Amino acid sequence: MSTEYQTLANDGLWENNPALVQLLGLCPLLAVTGTVTNALGLGIATMLVLVGSNITVSLVRNWVPNEIRIPVFVIVIATFVTLVELTMNAFTYGLFMALGIFIPLIVTNCAIIGRAEAYASKNNWYNSAFDGLMMGLGFTLVLVALGALREILGQGTLFAGAELLLGEWARDLKIQLFSFDYPLLLAILPPGAFLGMGFLIAGKNWIDGRRKAKLAKAPIEKAQRARVTTVN
Amino acid sequence: MSWLLGILALAVLALVAGLILGFAAIRFRVESDPIVEQIDNLLPQTQCGQCGYPGCRPYAEAIANGDEINKCPPGGQATIDKLADLLGREAKPLDAAHGEEDVKKVAVIREDECIGCTKCIQACPVDAILGAARQMHTVIADECTGCDLCVEPCPVDCIDMVAVAVKPERWKWNLDQIPIQDITASSEHSNSEDKQVQTQ
Amino acid sequence: MIEITATSPLHHFPGGIHPPEQKALANQTPIQRLPLAPMLYIPLRQHSGPAGELCVQVGDHVLKGQALTQPGVDNGLPVHASTSGTIVAIQDHPLNHPSGFSGPTAYLQPDGAEQWIERQPIDDLSRLSHREILMHLQLMGIAGLGGAGFPTARKVAGAQGIDLLIINGVECEPYIVADDRLMREHAAEIVRGSQLLQTITAAKQVVIAVEDNKPEAIAAFETVLAADANVTNTMILRVVPTRYPSGGEKQLIQVLTGLQVPADQLPADIGILVQNVGTAFAVARAIDHGEPLIERVVTITGQALSKPGTAWIPLGTPIDHILSVSGFQPANKQRVIIGGPMMGYTIASLQVPVIKTTNCILAPSAKELAPPEHEMACIRCGACEQVCPASLLPQQLQWLAKAKDYDGLKQHHLADCIECGACAYVCPSEIPLVQYYRQAKAEIREQLIEQQKSEIARQRFEARQARLEREKEERLEKHRKAAEARKAAQAARADSGEEDPVKAALARVKAKKAAQQAAEPASESTDAPADDKKAQVAAAVARAKARKAEREAALAQADDQQKADDDKKAQVAAAVARAKARKAERDAAAQQEKQEDGESS
Amino acid sequence: MLKSMRKNGLILGGFAVVATALVVTTQVLTADRIAEQQRNELMRTLNELIPPALHDNDLYRDCALIQAPEALGLAEQPVYRSRLASEPNALAIRTTAPDGYSGAIHLLVAVNLQGQIKGVRVLQHRETPGLGDKIEVQRDDWILSFNGERVRTENDARWRVRRDGGMFDQFTGATITPRAVIAAVQRTAWYAQNNMDSLFAAPANCIGEPLANDPLGREEQPYEY
Amino acid sequence: MSFFIASSPHNHQKRTTSRLMQLVLLAMVPGVLAQFYFFGWGIVWQLLIAGFTAVCAESLCLIARERSPLRGLQDYSALVTAALLAVSIPPLAPWWVIVIGTIFAIVVVKHLFGGIGHNIFNPAMAAYVLLLISFPVQMTSWLPPVTLSGESIGWWDSLRLILVQYTSAGYSVDQVRAVATGQLFDAVVMATPLDQIKTDLAQGLTLSESLSKPIFGAFAGHGWLWVNVAYLFGGLMLLQQRIIQWHIPAALLGALAVAAIIGSLAAPDALPGLNIHLFSGGTMLAAFFIATDPVSAATSNRGKLIYAALVGVLIYVIRSFGGYPDAIAFAVLLANLCVPVIDQYTRPTAYGQAGGQR
């Protein structure tokens, strides 16, 4: 794996994670992360759209004049979202129902148009595809983490309703970790999503801080100083 | 038939939008902001080159073209914050590779050692050194930016970078740095050696 | 047109506090004269503004009232010998300043004779021009005795034809009673000074303002004013309610007139001038008696003193002398405060002298003024906002100051803060708010200076670049001309047709010479002969080596204390190297001299 | 300027055409599959209440839209009719309880010819999670307590929560929700009993009307962030 | 011996934050006593648990933030938060309710926002809302006042109910309540007067029918009236001691009263009147102890008036038309959100900034 791909992967999954760092796509992120299944479903949908739109935008980037690039990106993204929506409707009907309005809302997820604008419109298609994949994966991971957090705290389960996404066999995937007499409703309700998100971001920053503290001990390479004046 | 209509409608819509955008692109073009000026105004104008560019203005141009904003040790964190504010970028800590923030200094030539080679005069970016060939040189302290570019060219190593002495009227109220006279020694006029610092 | 009558309503300024007054400690006894200190330390700068130019030398004998400095090119305010005696030193001495810095100070050893210099009173003001009167005030060293010590002549010069002259006898800060005692004992002279100031400024009206907690001072003024029918037309006494900080210039103006001085203006801009009673007194002495400002009333108070009171103190008297004759019993962590408890500053050394602005020396016991406790977090209770006389948002300013948001501070009008300390006084979390503001103000001021300096640096840099560019072009131009000359020569040769070897060679040489001359800026090349250069370089290298050795030696010393022997060796080596270097240098210099002699002869 | 306008317009138009064409194609390809999915989903719920053994007609198609504001709520509600050997057998009626704690509760009530409740399911609600949401069959058995009950009179006093002297439990901390559900089921059952014939006779004018947006019976509300 | 350098002013009004908070705690005593009298030992245990949890949470947070826990605890603010939360929740709520609430208040609402002085929201009220939406059953299970049920639960049984949810005789909270009340009253559902009205109105009863129920007594609800009077008394003590100023209580109660009068004139049979609004629920506690929290309230006097009036109106609106019977917490939190805006628009004009009026 070349460094280019490494950088892309690191950016998408951690350094420049669309959800944790760029704070993009919060609307679906906070709304559908009640369970891991929902989170995973939306994450995969977003990832598909992201990869598709990134490839397409990258392929057409040289033919699109600057002035109309945004409308073109929007058309491309809207098309992919509709395709994904129709496909999910046809093949994972239950999940489609559960995710409700949030599938079409992917079209307004700024993470997607953000990547189209920031990366795909300046790079070749295979790099863009990889970037889309990594960004999508990063987004999905955050969704799933938040979903797991809220599902465990709110219901004491994991993978409840996995059959909606994966078919009937997945019904057994559900893990009942513990059961409450009184679930922590806050975790299920939208404020819980905000709090959970806050804690995830805090966690990431904390880890970054620790890593940086370790890095700081490394010796610093002196940069070349320019001579402003010439001395004969 | 309905789908054909859909395609047609969208195509027309897109066409119209494209026309409008094409029109707007030409009609409402704005000249770019003189951002370099604004950046240059924030830089400390020491002209020290520690950023890797020959002078503050070249660095300002580089920043405008996307270079990092944390390469200016004389400006320090305050300058970085202001640049971040101006450019809407994230304020980063000073890049240690370019040096560290230091107290303000001026160059002082040990005049009895100066051989009058004029090398420092040529090195000074703000013409703050007076002198002529084989004459003793001296630094105009008020004009010196403390860039220390004159130190290295000096063949006899007679230039020192000295921290600027603070005058009472430019004192910054750092009470905890005041040396306290020991009260038992208060009757003696000489400065007692064992100064004790007592802070609130 | 502002007009104040004895019955016109008083106004309010927002906020304000009522700290315990503690004035009875020192205002019960008349103003004393203390024994003269064995040495006076007279700082050359005792006011806000540039220092004067020194006009005495070490060893000079000076008379009482003799100027030690004169205005000079900076138009500074002179200081005078407070008594007769000898100048034994002029050197840095701890300044009467919160920073604890030292500054140039004249050490005056009194001879005890109190021999006055010849005084030149002004009998008739009308004989002198306005300019001459102001010059006289400046030469007498008069500065505002109430606060910052702004030169009175300059303040008065900026306030011509004003509506209202306010003589400030409010003295609102706890403990301080210097003005109180002065008003009680010298009301007539204060009124006289006020009249003089009125004449000088051509003010239409004079108001003497006194706080209602000084009944004796009020009575004294009433007696004086009643006795003189002339003054009652234009001069009235107003008694203002006791509330800190009503003695602040801006607050007093608001109380008396209901007007506010706009933020970027001076009181004179709205037709008002405020002078302290002490200043009025000093003006009277300076004009009627020709006495320069060499002493002032100082409040000596606090429970760490057994004999508090007020005294005429010659400027330059060190604090420890005053304290010791007042029965100073210091405790551990003793505070000695110059000024009052609200706005005064602690000093770090008792050697600091009394200067023109010193109105109070406060040595409190820990019981009466408890030392500050730990700063706790701000709970946004808003108490500070309720007491701020400038209607600022102290707590907001505090957050901004802590965040170093200087632009935000400017927007919140930090500059309008008068540092009265009311906010910090009421703060339940004991946040030293004023300290934060002062630091922020200093930082803002510093940034402004830096910005101006950087602007100058930019101009100089750009000018230099332009100059270099110009020089380069000139050089290129010379090259071009030389080349043209060569070409012309060639052309001439070609034109001549026949091959004249001698001519051609000559032309070649000429062209070459021209080119050479063009290439080397003649003025710059003052190349010393080779041997001189060599010597110079040798000397320099030797010196550099010596310095290196020295540095290494020093390093070694610092690094390893145990290796004292090595150290010594290194030191010796360094010394030897240094000596060698010096010798080489001398040689080089001698050689150079010779060379130069040779050249000139 | 004209050149730029023409170029931009044509490119954008071209993109629109291609994109729309793609969408249309996909839609054509998935249409059948989607319809089937919707049907399956509907049948699953219906079959829970009226087991396949009790009918041999196509419930999915034997659907009538009925408007009965008094009993079923303001909207037109689908009624699915189960027939065995062409004989009327049972009804599944969608109904609305407008007076839930946090708005309307949508229910599906199955009644047999005798007016006996075959089963009740909550299709959609916004009751407080942890309190009112015990009306969901996934969370509590409470909704099953209707099975086999019958409404005897129009104001049958047994059809109350226990605290009001009826026969149904309430939940700890929430009485409004059960009250609303009980009242709605009662109204619906009473309506069905009295209009059995006309309900079966109504023309089948809806096919596969979806019961709710959310088969879990719980609506994830589209909060507007 | 040495000198001491300090910045001016050197004298100081000796009323520290610690002292202020202590006095606030002291002023809560009458209210707590009233609650103890009417609702039994539960309040005492809740206070103890909350106080202990608050001290622990505060210390841990301070240690985690590398500050001295001893100095941090000295300001007593954590205890005030704990006390406010403890008096707000039902006396027999399980222990983990108050523990979760207190930890949330201290850790999330206070320290994650930067510690005392930096929290935008009133910690006790934010925690109350968290508990209310997370554990609606526990948070709405109030006991009928002892004076009404005639039977009190002993200190030991109260503790057992809080810790293990069963008395020594094996009764659960619900059973105790049912036994204590003899099924006289609503044995299961919430028993506060405001709750009762809301439930009754939802059931179709008229206001007067609801008010004729025994829980209301003569004026504004058994027990609750006296609890409110006691908090009013404590609040007046704070006013007299100048710990708080009149602006917030006056504006809050005034706005609430005006709204209540208008409401009951407009719809006498659906909206309860002045007496119910002022002396039921947590009105007095809110007016004198909660809304006056300096950290999350507006700062200028004008700002305080606006802020508190907003709280008053919000309390009325939410009580009358919202989903929850009492509305103190929501109203305070919503008003907290508005504080920066209020502060911005009630900024006094600084000296000399008004433009030179000569």
UniProtKB/TrEMBL annotation, chain A:
InterPro entries: NqrDE/RnfAE (IPR003667), RnfE (IPR010968). It is a multi-pass membrane protein. Its EC number is 7.-.-.-. It is an enzyme of class 7 (translocase). Coiled coil: none annotated. One of its GO terms (cellular component) is plasma membrane. It comes from the Bacteria. GO terms for biological process: electron transport chain. Keywords: Cell inner membrane, Cell membrane, Electron transport, Membrane, Translocase, Transmembrane, Transmembrane helix, Transport. It is found in: Cell inner membrane; Endomembrane system. The complex is composed of six subunits: RnfA, RnfB, RnfC, RnfD, RnfE and RnfG. Part of a membrane-bound complex that couples electron transfer with translocation of ions across the membrane. Belongs to the NqrDE/RnfAE family. HAMAP family: RsxE_RnfE. This is Ion-translocating oxidoreductase complex subunit E. The gene is rnfE.
UniProtKB/TrEMBL annotation, chain B:
One of its GO terms (biological process) is electron transport chain. GO terms for molecular function: 4 iron, 4 sulfur cluster binding; electron transfer activity; metal ion binding. Residues 1-25 are annotated as: Hydrophobic. Its cofactor is [4Fe-4S] cluster. The keyword Transport applies. Residues 105-134, 135-164 form the 4Fe-4S ferredoxin-type domain. It is an enzyme of class 7 (translocase). Transmembrane segments: none annotated. [4Fe-4S] cluster 1 binds at C48, C51, C56, C72. It is found in: Cell inner membrane. Its EC number is 7.-.-.-. [4Fe-4S] cluster 2 binds at C114, C117, C120, C154. [4Fe-4S] cluster 3 binds at C124, C144, C147, C150. Residues 31-89 form the 4Fe-4S domain. Pfam families: Fer4_21, FeS. It comes from the Bacteria. Keywords: 4Fe-4S, Cell inner membrane, Cell membrane, Electron transport, Iron, Iron-sulfur, Membrane, Metal-binding, Repeat, Translocase, Transport. Binds 3 [4Fe-4S] clusters. GO terms for cellular component: plasma membrane. The complex is composed of six subunits: RnfA, RnfB, RnfC, RnfD, RnfE and RnfG. Belongs to the 4Fe4S bacterial-type ferredoxin family. RnfB subfamily. Part of a membrane-bound complex that couples electron transfer with translocation of ions across the membrane. This is Ion-translocating oxidoreductase complex subunit B. It comes from Aliidiomarina haloalkalitolerans.
UniProtKB/TrEMBL annotation, chain C:
Residues 369-398, 408-437 form the 4Fe-4S ferredoxin-type domain. [4Fe-4S] cluster 1 binds at C378, C381, C384, C427. One of its GO terms (biological process) is electron transport chain. It is found in: Cell inner membrane. Belongs to the 4Fe4S bacterial-type ferredoxin family. RnfC subfamily. HAMAP family: RsxC_RnfC. This is Ion-translocating oxidoreductase complex subunit C. It comes from Aliidiomarina haloalkalitolerans.
From TrEMBL, chain E:
One of its GO terms (cellular component) is plasma membrane. The complex is composed of six subunits: RnfA, RnfB, RnfC, RnfD, RnfE and RnfG. The modification FMN phosphoryl threonine is found at T192. It is found in: Cell inner membrane. It holds the Pfam family NQR2_RnfD_RnfE. Part of a membrane-bound complex that couples electron transfer with translocation of ions across the membrane. Its EC number is 7.-.-.-. It comes from the Bacteria. The chain crosses the membrane at residues 20-38, 95-113, 125-143, 215-239, 246-267, 273-292, 304-321. GO terms for biological process: electron transport chain; transmembrane transport. Its cofactor is FMN. It is an enzyme of class 7 (translocase). This is Ion-translocating oxidoreductase complex subunit D. Keywords: Cell inner membrane, Cell membrane, Electron transport, Flavoprotein, FMN, Membrane, Phosphoprotein, Translocase, Transmembrane, Transmembrane helix, Transport. It is a multi-pass membrane protein. Belongs to the NqrB/RnfD family.
